[in-house]
Amino acid sequence: MESVIYVGIDVHKDTYYLSSFLPEKNLIFAQTEMKADSKSVMKYLDKVSDMNNGAVVLSGYEAGPTGFKLCRDLIKWNYNCVVMAPTSIAKTTRDKMVKTDKADSVLLAKSLAFHSYKQVVLPNENIEALREVVRMRHFAQKECKRAKQSFLSFLLSNGFSYPYGGKNTYWSKKFMLWVNTIHFNSEYLNFCKEEYLAEAVRMIQRVKTLDKKLEELQETEEIKDKVRALKCISGINTLTAMTLITEVGDFNRFKTAGHFASYTGLCPGSHSSGLTDRSTGITKQGNRIIRRLLIESAKAIRRSCPQKSEYLLKRQMGMPSEIINYADKASSRLRRRMRRLDNNGLNYNKVSAACARELACFVWGMMTNHIA
After folding, report:
1. Does the reported pTM lie above 0.90?
2. In this predicted model, what pLDDT tens digit does every residue of 243-259 receive, in sequence order?
3. Stretch 151-160: mean pLDDT, rounded?
4. pLDDT of residue 275
5. How high is the pLDDT of residue 144?
6. Which CA distances in Å does 323 have to 170, 218, 231, 362?
7. Please, which residues have CB within 8 angstroms of residue 149's CB and are 6 or more apart in sequence?
8. Alpha carbon distance 284, 295 (integer Å)
9. Is 337 a residue whose pLDDT tops 70?
10. β-pairing, 4-11 with 15-22?
11. Model confidence at 270: pLDDT above 90
12. Model confidence band, residue 88 (pLDDT cutoffs 50, 70, 90)
């Protein structure tokens, strides 16, 4: 039987630390630190294989900020490499107390050998590039909200509060005309007002620019049909659909809708000990961007009326009848469930999370063609 050598790679921005493990002899060897470069890793793997009569070499490293470039480079040149989910790697108390690059690489090598990890699925490179644009839009929205709040807080702290309506009327034409009437006696405060306002306006424009870009990118051949299908569901707009598709990648890697719902972190946890067995709050595991958007979409369905809006009818126009029927079924079911849970007196946020989990199951069904 051909022996296999497992190589753990502790990756950092500037350096890699590699350790090789031969489970047959319980031997750790060839430990070294090198420059963060794919070609240097390839040379190392070749040497390790040659030292052991051409043994098969499997390398792996933790998913992190360095991304998937190293793994893609190694696979491109026919080397075996996997990316490991950090939360799936078992660590002892000692491992947590003594943390060095050397110790981490040994832990990774042993995790590879004993299969005590979960492999991260490498996304399609084009989908990953689209995901970066979508994430930029989310980041811009967060910065826009912060810039708006900073300006409004500045006005309030200096005695100015918008008198014509609630917060939903902020940043309208009427609001901007009101802002232009504000003048301070201090030139410093006027300077602050102009700077705060300029930053808020700039961020608003940036979000609009990115929204326009997303409208163009949704026509990309790889995701076009999926985006159109998801947008048939009430509460799911272009941003939500593109985020779900680019963040998840291949929905077929989840065997059931329940597995996908667990991935989103919307399933309740469990606390079982002795005679005690009770459910806890949602696990909040997995991708928090997806979880937040699903909850927002569930709330949007809650606010919408059963009669379809013109915007939704436009999104569904030209789509196959089975997709439209499935989307309508999802919206109707979620509304009924929300009403039932509300009537039972359940907390608003709990209702939203429960229905977001169900919406996740419908999304999985739509993306895997389980719409019968």
Report:
1. no
2. 999 999 889 999 999 99
3. 95
4. 66
5. 97
6. 38, 18, 10, 11
7. none
8. 12
9. yes
10. antiparallel
11. no
12. confident
Distance CA 156, CA 195 (A): 16
CA–CA dist 234, 330 (Å, integer): 8
Q: Which two tokens stand for residue 354?
A: 């429960």
- Phi/psi of residue 268, each to 5°? -70, 145
Q: Per DSSP, what are the bridge partners of residue 17?
A: 10, 33
Q: What strands lie across the sheet with 80-84, from one edge to the other?
A: 27-35, 15-22, 4-11, 56-62, 80-84
Give the integer Cα–Cα distance in Å for 367 and 96: 39
User: Cα(47)–Cα(204) distance, rounded to whole angstroms?
Assistant: 55
| Residue 200 in this model has a pLDDT that exceeds 60 | yes
Q: What is the pLDDT of residue 149?
A: 96
- pLDDT band, very low/low/confident/very high, at 289 (cuts 50, 70, 90): very high
- 74 neighbors 42 (Cβ within 8 angstroms): yes
Distance between CA 15 and CA 35 in Å, rounded? 5
User: Residue 264 half-sphere exposure, CB side, CA atoms within 13 Å?
Assistant: 28
Encoded tokens for 1: 């039987």
Neighbours of 215 (CB within 10 A): 12
Better pLDDT: 222 or 97: 222
Contact predicate 4/58, CB 8 Å: yes
Long-range contacts for 169-173 (Cβ within 8 Å, ≥24 apart)? 171/200, 171/204
pLDDT tens profile 164-189: 877 778 999 999 999 999 999 999 99
CA distances from 101 to 12, 48, 58, 337 (A): 9, 19, 19, 51
* Spatial separation of the C-alpha atoms in residues 325 and 372, rounded to whole Å: 10
Q: Hey, CA dihedral for 123, 289, 63, 83, is it positive or negative?
A: negative
What 354-357 contacts at long range (C-beta under 8 Å, 24+ apart), as own/partner pairs, is 355/298, 355/301, 355/302, 356/264, 356/266, 356/291, 356/294, 356/295, 356/297, 356/298, 357/261, 357/264, 357/266, 357/267, 357/282, 357/294
Structure tokens at 160: 């100015």
For 43, the token pair is: 């040379």
